[in-house]
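Morning. Coffee machine broken again, so started the prediction first thing and wrote up yesterday's gels while waiting. Chain of 208 residues, entered below exactly as on the submission form.
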Amino acid sequence: MSPHPVPLDFVFRSRSKDEKAPAVQAPVTDSTQPRDPQAPKGRPTPKRAMAQSQRRSVTNTPTTRKEAAKRQRDERRTQMAKQREAMASGDERYLPARDKGPVRKFARDFVDSRFCVAEFFLPLAVIILVLSIVQVPQLQNVALLAWLFVIVLIIVDSIATALRLKKRLNERFPSENKKGAVAYALMRTLQMRRLRLPKPQVKRGERP
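Came back before lunch.
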């Protein structure tokens, strides 16, 4: 036997400390998130891109009623500018609803390709009005007859235009909705060609 015996409590205490020591040390992990291998170099990962888009949407959202009203006015002003350009160029994308569609475009082209009596109504009306003001009985009688003659011509020409247009629309667009297209075209005949909107896209005598 050894002359210096080792105390039992020292042995058990040392062994218990050795068993608990590894448990105290926590594994060290990398807190940085690895870059997504599918994300292109120099671009954010899908999660980061989603977060950025959300931040942009929040930034673009108006925060006050005044700001929202200002944004609506700006959008309305932009839309009106596009409509004015479309009226001059005939761009279907930005035309008002009453002018959109192939049926309405054909009705416009049909009217613009021919002479209509109704488009000369305004200048004729000015001339007849001047004649009726002059204090000469003969000229006043001529003005009255001219009024009747112009009105009868407009009615006859409008009826003929409506019948021809309705026939052409039925031939060209048998399955399309043609409601209001003839009245739309007749209203266009009352305007002088240079003042019509949308601007005419065909020449006189050109078949639409």
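Helices lie at 8-24, 46-60, 65-89, 102-112, 121-133, 137-172, 181-189. Going to sketch it on the whiteboard this afternoon.
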